[in-house]
Design brief:
It contains 4 helices and 2 strands. It is mainly alpha-helical and about 100 residues long. α2 runs antiparallel to α3, α2 runs parallel beside α4 and α3 runs antiparallel to α4.
Length: about 100
């Protein structure tokens, strides 16, 4: 699924990471690992979004990506790492469609 350190070819990567974050959520002391996974998902989404903006992508899709990215950031700050990863996946999808 990975083409390089910053790009993936499938949203399955996000689903796998989201599942892992969900499974970790009940384990004491796992927040740092879950936050790292959310951070990686954020990075994938923002990389593709920046590329879509630079390429003059579809403004509506870019706006949706920005909205989902913001929702992910809000979830992440609240400690909802699986929710954040889900929103970052949606942002990545919109950026890819831009």
């Amino acid at each position: 699924y990975w083409t390089d350190d910053d790009h993936v070819t499938s949203s399955n990567v996000f689903q796998s990471v989201q599942t892992a974050a969900t499974q970790l959520s009940g384990i004491p002391g796992s927040a740092a690992a879950s936050d790292e996974m959310a951070g990686a998902a954020h990075s994938l989404a923002t990389t593709l979004l920046a590329e879509a903006i630079a390429a003059g992508g579809n403004p509506a899709q870019i706006a949706q990506a920005l909205s989902k990215l913001s929702a992910g950031d809000t979830a992440r700050l609240a400690g909802d790492y699986a929710g954040a990863i889900h929103q970052y996946r949606l942002a990545w999808n919109h950026a890819g469609n831009a």
